[in-house]
Backbone:
């Protein structure tokens, strides 16, 4: 990566020697007539994060960033001019049936030092990073009652159990009024099942149902009809409902309060990575630094999930060569095809992504966004592929298929069993999850300055030459261990802000 340091001089970032575009680094952009030390002169004003043409690009010629084609020139783009979105024609997506498998497998060299963290060991061998009472719901009808009960539990009971971090209602909008036997209904159902068994809940199960819903509560309790389930239709009035829920919670809080943190190897950790509110710096600063941290985690024996199908689709030709074997390669293709068909059914295509904010941030199209997105996955082999909401089953780098929507991806990664999510953002979003910490990494110095009490790590200093990708990568790695150990809290957890669960339900609502 070429860059020039010192914030006051005109600065652009070129990611690969073959690139004929680079992005403007300076805050506020650069004016017409500005000259770079290499001699390039801007022939028009270009905003920060947007692309400048490094040479004349002829009509129909390839527009290159990250050494990859991100589009074709609509008409002549002059050297020193702004490569605006309208000038970039979208290339056709990679053909899924002729991709190479396992041709780029890097050796996973274990880290020399052994790393550990302090986690809560569960009886089934899994580990938690928080100590939470999770109250599952089998249908949305019970949400209001449960919210009332949880408020009461937090105020009146929780202070008596100092080792328990919080009480959480797993409210969602599924369970009835849905085509429960539709083939794709397995996605929301297994998501709820797996959320209920999250390792941060310490093996305690508590399910609140209504009594007549399609998603019968026993499905969430391994088929057992026991005192882990309470149905509101069995209770005599509201006051009794609340009393019964509080009593159930108290029994479980007593047991959870006995949990203690102990030293656990990093191989017990499952970390999710995601980006949201991306900009042109995402793929230059925060995502490469996170990719470096991903490699460190995998080399330390941990499991890392990367997701967001619509942001992987246009770079899939760079991922199938990293599939550890043909089976994993075919699973990657299967998930891409499923999503292509899902989008077709809704009569949309991948141009629905990026968002307007992404475009204002300088991202021309989904191809450019994808190239900057997949660097989060690091460089090592992909050992497994999960369908949406499936539980993690292998250690190492795993592709967990999810939509790119921050909340849906977050919910599905939680169902897969992540203990922590690292979230890179360029435009800025206060997104957080209640079940596991979300560590936020900003792509630009200006976002970190503006949101100093929401952003946990600033990768913007990579663009200005104040830190290297490796340095920020290690910073992310060390913060993951500290936050997982409970010795450090993310900003969003300090404020206690959380987004609701958002299920992915591709099947019909009736
Ligand atoms: Ca996202």
Residues:
């Amino acid at each position: 990566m070429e860059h020039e340091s010192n914030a006051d001089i005109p600065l652009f970032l070129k990611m690969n020697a073959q690139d004929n575009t680079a992005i403007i680094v300076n805050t506020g952009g650069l004016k017409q007539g500005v000259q770079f030390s290499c001699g390039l002169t801007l022939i028009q004003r270009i905003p920060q994060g947007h692309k400048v043409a490094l040479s004349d690009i002829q009509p129909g010629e390839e527009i290159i960033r990250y050494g990859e084609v991100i589009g074709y020139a609509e008409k002549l783009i002059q050297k020193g001019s702004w490569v605006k979105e309208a000038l970039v024609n979208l290339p056709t997506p990679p053909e899924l049936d002729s991709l190479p498998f396992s041709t780029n497998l890097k050796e996973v060299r274990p880290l020399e030092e052994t790393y550990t963290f302090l986690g809560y060991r569960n009886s089934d061998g899994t580990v938690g990073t928080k100590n939470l009472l999770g109250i599952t719901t089998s249908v949305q009808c019970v949400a209001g009652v449960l919210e009332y009960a949880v408020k009461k539990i937090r105020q009146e009971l929780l202070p008596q159990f100092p080792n328990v971090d919080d009480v959480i209602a797993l409210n969602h909008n599924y369970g009835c009024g849905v085509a429960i036997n539709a083939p794709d209904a397995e996605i929301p159902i297994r998501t709820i099942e797996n959320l209920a068994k999250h390792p941060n809940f310490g093996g305690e199960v508590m399910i609140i149902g209504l009594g007549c819903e399609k998603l019968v509560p026993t499905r969430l309790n391994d088929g057992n009809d026991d005192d882990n389930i309470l149905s509101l239709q069995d209770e005599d009035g509201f006051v009794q409902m609340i009393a019964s829920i509080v009593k159930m919670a108290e029994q479980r809080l007593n047991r959870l309060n006995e949990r203690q943190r102990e030293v656990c190897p990093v191989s017990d950790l499952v970390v999710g990575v995601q980006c949201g509110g991306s900009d042109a710096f995402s793929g230059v600063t925060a995502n490469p630094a996170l990719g470096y941290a991903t490699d460190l985690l995998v080399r330390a024996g941990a499991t890392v999930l990367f997701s967001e199908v619509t942001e992987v689709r246009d770079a899939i030709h760079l991922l199938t060569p990293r599939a550890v074997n043909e089976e994993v390669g075919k699973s990657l293709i299967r998930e891409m095809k499923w999503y292509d068909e899902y989008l077709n059914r809704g009569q949309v295509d991948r141009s629905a992504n990026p968002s307007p904010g992404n475009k204002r941030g300088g991202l021309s199209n989904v191809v450019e966004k994808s190239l900057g997105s997949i660097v989060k996955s690091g460089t090592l082999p992909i050992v497994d592929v999960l369908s949406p909401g499936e539980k993690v089953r292998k250690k190492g780098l795993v592709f967990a298929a999810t939509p790119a929507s921050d909340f849906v991806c977050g919910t599905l990664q939680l169902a897969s069993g992540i203990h922590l999510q690292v979230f890179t953002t360029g435009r800025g979003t206060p997104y957080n999850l209640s079940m596991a910490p979300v560590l936020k990494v900003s792509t630009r110095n200006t976002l970190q300055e503006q949101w100093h009490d929401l952003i946990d790590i600033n990768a913007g200093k990579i663009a200005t030459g104040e830190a290297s990708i490796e340095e920020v990568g290690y910073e992310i790695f060390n913060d993951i261990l500290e936050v997982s150990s409970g010795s450090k809290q993310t900003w969003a957890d300090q404020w206690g802000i959380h987004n609701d669960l958002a299920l992915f339900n591709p099947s019909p609502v009736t």
The chain has a mean pLDDT of 93. Residues 274-276, 308, 404, 406, 409 surround calcium ion (CB under 6 Å).
